[in-house]
């Protein structure tokens, strides 16, 4: 699955919403995203700065790698 927006772009969109210059619906239409996507991003990235979002992405990647490693160990011992 290809992501259309980077974490940096998502944070910029969320900051734009915080200014209150336009409604959430109008902002979503401007960036061609659904309301559901906006609120999912806000739950995940709300309050984060760009370096924090990069660190979150790194941690999620590492967590996934470790989960696969552990799953591989358990499947071979059964």
From TrEMBL:
InterPro entries: Homeodomain-like_sf (IPR009057), Transposase_8 (IPR002514), Transposase_8_domain (IPR052546), WH-like_DNA-bd_sf (IPR036388)
Pfam families for this protein: HTH_Tnp_1 (PF01527)
Gene3D superfamilies according to UniProt: Winged helix-like DNA-binding domain superfamily/Winged helix DNA-binding domain
Recorded GO MF terms: DNA binding; transposase activity
Bilayer-spanning residue ranges: none
GO terms classed as biological process: DNA transposition
SUPFAM superfamilies reported for this sequence: Homeodomain-like
Family: Belongs to the transposase 8 family.
PANTHER family: LOW CALCIUM RESPONSE LOCUS PROTEIN S, TRANSPOSASE
Name listed for the protein in its UniProt record: Transposase
